[in-house]
Each structure stands twice: as C-alpha cells, then as structure tokens.
Amino acid sequence: MNPLSLLLWVVLPYIAAAVFIVGHIWRYRYDKFGWTTRSSQSYENRLLRWGSPMFHFGILFVLVGHAVGLLVPREWLYAIGIDEHMYHIGATVLGTAAAILTLAGLAILIYRRRTVGPVFLATTTMDKVMYVFLGATLLFGTLATFMHQLFGPGYEYRTTISPWVRSILLFQPQPELMDQAPLMFQLHALTATLLFALWPFTRLVHVFSAPVQYLFRPYIVYRSRDEHRSGARATRRGWEPVAPPDPERLAPAVVTRSPRSQRPADTVMVPPGIAPAPAGSSSTMSSPVAVRARTTTPDSPARTSSIRAAQPSPEPPPEPSPRRSGSVAATAAANGVAGASSTSRTPPSCVIRPASSTTRRPARDAASAASCVAMSAVVPVAAS
Q1: Residues 101, 58: contact at Cβ < 8 Å?
Q2: Could you give the C-alpha distances from 343 to 259, 340, 378, in angstroms and in order?
Q3: Sign of dihedral through CA atoms 129, 132, 134, 137?
Q4: Among 11, 19, 64, 13, which Cα is nearest to 192's?
Q5: How far, in Å, CA of 340 to CA of 261, rounded?
C-alpha cells in the first residue's frame, strides 16, 4: 500500500466525513438564518421553471441509483430475483437518462446565473466553488458510464468500488480496491469526496431541510378582493360600518342656549286656543298654564322645554330691590320685550340673581336672565 493510495482512499474520505458531520452541526447551531436555498426565483422565472425541475428530479434518480449500487451487495439483489443482466440494463439505461437530465438542468441553471444580472450579483464565492465541484462530479460520472458501460467492454464496479465504500463506512478501509478502478471512476470518487467536504458551507444544506412544520401550521386568514365570486350564496361582510352617533339621543334633557351674540331673540309661543291678555293687564290666572319656549340657534336644532307657571298669590309681590329691578329692566330692554311690567311675577324657576364679580361665565348668566324675563313677560290669561 503506497502512501498516496492511503492518503486518497483512507485519510481524505474520513476527513471529508468529519467535516461533513461537524460542519452541519456548526452551521445549524450558529447560522440558522443562513440555512436556506438562497432562492432567486423573484429575479427570474422563465429559465428557472425549466432548469430547476430537471436538475432536482435528475439528481434524485442519480442518488437512488448510487445508493442501490454502492450500499446494497449484489448477493442481496440476486436473492430477490435481480440478476446481473437485469441490473446492468437498468443501471445503464436509467442511469444514463438521469445523468443527462441532471446535466441539462445544471447547464440551464449555470447559464441563468451567469446571464441574468440580478441573479449573478446574488451569487457568492461558495456558490461558484460548489458549482465547479458539483459539475465535475456529474461530468466524470457520466463520462465513466459512457466510456465503460455504453461504448466500452463494461466494468463491474460492484466488485471494487462498492466494497471500498462499505469498508469506509464500517471503519475497515481497503484502499487497494480503488487502485484497480479506472481513472474516470477514481476522478468521480475524488470530486465527490471533496464535494461532501464543501457541503456544509454551501446552499446544499437545504437538502436536509423538510417542510414538516407546514403540515401543522395554522391557516392563513385573508380576504379576497373579488366581489363576484361564484357560489351557492352571497358572502357577507365580516364587519359593519359604524355610523356617527345621533346628536338627538346624546343631547341632555335640559335646554341649552348659545350666547346672545350667536342666536336671535327668543320666541315665546302660547298654546293654541288661549288668547293672550292685553299688555299691561294685571289679571290673574284661575289655573296654571303651560308655556312652551322655543329656542332656535343657527348651529343647533330646535329644542323645546316646558315651564309651568306657579299659582299667583293674591297678595302683591314684594317690591324688588333697585339693583334687581334695574337688572331686570335692562335685560328686558336688551331683549326687546314689549309691555314688560314691573308688577309681573317672575316664576320661581327663573329667579334672576345679580351678577357678581366672581361670576366665571357672564355670557351664560345673561342669556339665562334674558330667557326668564321673556317668559315672565307673557301676560297671564284666563282659560278659555
């Protein structure tokens, strides 16, 4: 056993196997996000949809043929009825077809990666090295098949190469078996060994990735944009538009009035069927009368409120203080109420208090005073 044979057929295979196993563990441990195919389908799809299926289906048939030819002893095949002639026909015909399909797909992928600008820019150095060794391995294997199996006397590699592979796996290497193999088979084995050493550092790691989690992931909920889909019944919306709130329902029960500068003068409405008494009359009502006051502003809808006048007392009301009477008279004059008398009784609910310096909202107090004066200015009438 010469040193070169020991180096090529014993040392190199075990180094490649160690790098293959440890490299995958390291890659998965420290570079999970890089464990990907680095797909370039978004850049170009016309050549990819031809080259990718041809290469992947072809390489699957190649791997199955190598697994049967290298790992399964021929005595096992004889036991199940596959003799030497049948195996030779199947391995030669099917293996040649798979090799041609794989090489054609790889050629399309390499051409696409070199001619399409975005795909070429996305190509790394390790991609180029991987393509060199992968192409060389496939090329030497195809040449060996053509030279020795199709157009040659034939070579029974199951007596030399297959036992050598099994001896490496069983840690009982027999390098002298590879010394008897033809040159093309030796080159095919060497390039395949180097490709296995480079495997963990290239995109070929996606071979050991299976989309198992896709079988158990939840459904993706989405809404179709097609409003005219065919079906037994019309689809209904999953949501309803929210209308703005109704201001009539949200408004408080009390009467709100805007400041005097933003609304017209209040209008006092007397119920139909009741004739108002002449101005200045001091007659009293025999029963309470409901007076409705309507306030309309440009910015808000009309709102009404009812104020029931109290039963007037037979005694004359006390004389208001000068300050209060002056405030009432000034407010009545400002509102333009005709026929207001100082002897008319102000309803208890509309007591006007003099404004003080501590009042924070003088505009609202003035509006309330004007409204109360307008309601108290209605002349009491007897029920018809």
Answers
A1: yes
A2: 28, 9, 12
A3: negative
A4: 13
A5: 22
Q: Sign of torsion, CA 156 162 164 167?
A: negative
Q: What is the DSSP letter of 282?
A: -
Residue at 223 is within a domain: no
Amino acid identity at 118: P
Task: Say what the pTM is.
Answer: 0.56
Sign of CA dihedral 49, 50, 54, 57: positive
pLDDT tens string 173-227: 999 999 989 999 999 999 999 999 999 999 999 999 887 887 888 887 776 666 5
Question: Which amino acid is it at 240?
Answer: E
Q: Is 87 exposed, middle or buried (0-12, 13-18, 19+ CB in 10 A)?
A: middle
HSE, CB side, 13 Å, CA atoms: give it for residue 225.
0
Confidence of residue 378 (pLDDT cuts 50, 70, 90): very low
pLDDT of residue 188: 96
Averaged pLDDT of the chain: 75
Q: Are residues 260 and 207 in the same domain?
A: no
Tokens at 222, concatenated: 């989405």
The one-letter amino acid code at 122 reads A
Domain that holds residue 313: 252-376
**260 and 166 within one domain:** no
Q: Is the Cβ–Cβ distance between 55 and 106 less than 8 Å?
A: yes
334: its two tokens: 């400002």
CATH number of the domain where residue 185 is located: 1.20.950.20
Half-sphere exposure of residue 76: CA atoms within 13 angstroms, side-chain side:
7
C-alpha span between 59 and 70 (Å, rounded):
16
Distances (CA, A) of 132 to 86, 104, 369: 34, 15, 99
Q: Is 366 exposed, middle or buried (0-12, 13-18, 19+ CB in 10 A)?
A: middle
Tokens of 59: 């390489």
- Give the C-alpha separation, 117 to 97, whole Å: 32
Count of structural domains within the chain: 2
